[in-house]
From TrEMBL:
Any one GO MF annotation of this record: ATP hydrolysis activity
Pfam families registered for this protein in UniProt: ABC_tran
Name of the protein: ABC-type multidrug transport system ATPase subunit
Superkingdom per UniProt: Bacteria
Source organism phylogeny: Bacteria, Bacillati, Actinomycetota, Actinomycetes, Kitasatosporales
SUPFAM superfamilies: P-loop containing nucleoside triphosphate hydrolases
Keyword field contains Transport: yes
Domain ABC transporter: 1-221
Keywords: ATP-binding, Nucleotide-binding, Transport
Length: 282
């Protein structure tokens, strides 16, 4: 997904909230957005999610997206289960699958007893759990979280932390804003700051551990073998029939073992180290 020259303002002739934003949003990445109150963080997230349209520039390549807004509208005339099932249908799930996913996430957030409770009757904390659940139930390719942890109890924050990690490990992208600077500390691939209408990368932030990239080619039509390390990111490679797999350096032996011991084994075309930001790869 790419933003090129993107700007956004509200009302004809109104001030530009964002201006000349150039941003690449890669697959399989965890991106944090920072900035002062009123700087335009939420505007950027709405643009990424497709909720707002840019007033200038272009956004291309947006994948299947789910968005958890900063403020959830609790007065909608649905029960929690009806609302989540409906959102699941909007995201392309069949009715049975949407209903099953809705129940699963309500249970995971510890509010399974509220399936038949109307949204207007839920507490603020429970409403926030429903808001987060609607963003997770369809396994989106891009998940945009605007202060999604605010109002959650510690156990539910852990559930959301784990869900974010799982989505990125599955190759999805997660972009988030959170007022707690310790949220997912050390995990983001990059951090961006919004200030004075501009979006810029924050130097010296993001992942610090080296990663290993393996380009491999399997037998014609073969699926990737089972047992790949958790957090393996898959991308297409330039060579026909090849795939590029990236993992933390500590998991590289496990990745190579899974590929080489598959039946039939995969051919390893190249292995490279992806150094932390600011260092040279080899």
């Amino acid at each position: 997904m790419r933003l090129r020259g993107v700007g956004r303002r509200y009302g004809l002739g109104g001030p530009w909230i964002l201006r000349d934003v150039d941003l690449d949003v890669p697959a399989g990445a965890l991106l944090r957005v920072e900035g002062a109150n009123g700087s335009g963080k939420s505007t950027l997230l709405r643009l990424l999610a497709g909720v707002d349209a840019p007033g200038a520039g272009s956004i291309t390549g947006r994948p299947r997206t789910a968005y958890v807004p900063e403020r959830f509208p609790p007065a909608l005339p649905f029960t929690a289960l009806e609302y989540l099932t409906g959102l699941g249908r909007v995201h392309g799930l069949g009715r049975a699958a949407a209903r099953s996913a809705a129940r699963e996430w309500l249970d995971r957030f510890g509010i399974g007893e509220h399936t038949r409770t109307r949204l207007s009757e839920l507490s603020k904390g429970t409403s926030q759990k429903v808001a987060v659940a609607q963003g997770l139930l369809s396994n989106p390719e891009l998940l945009v979280l605007d202060e999604a942890w605010t109002g959650l109890d510690p156990a539910s924050r852990t559930v959301l932390d784990d869900a974010v990690t799982a989505r990125v490990a599955a190759g999805a992208t997660v972009v988030f804003v959170d007022h707690d600077t310790r949220r997912l500390a050390g995990a983001p691939d990059a951090v961006f700051r919004v200030a004075q209408g501009r979006v810029s990368p924050v130097a010296g932030t993001g992942r610090t551990e080296p990663r290993v990239r393996v380009e491999a080619e399997g037998p014609s039509g073969a699926e990737l073998p089972a047992g790949l390390p958790e957090g393996t990111v898959r991308e297409p490679a330039a060579a026909p029939g090849a795939v590029r797999l990236t993992v933390a350096a500590a998991s590289s032996d496990a990745l190579l073992r899974a590929l080489l011991t598959a039946r039939p084994p995969w051919h390893i075309r190249a292995v490279t180290t992806v150094a932390p930001e600011g260092e040279r790869s080899r």
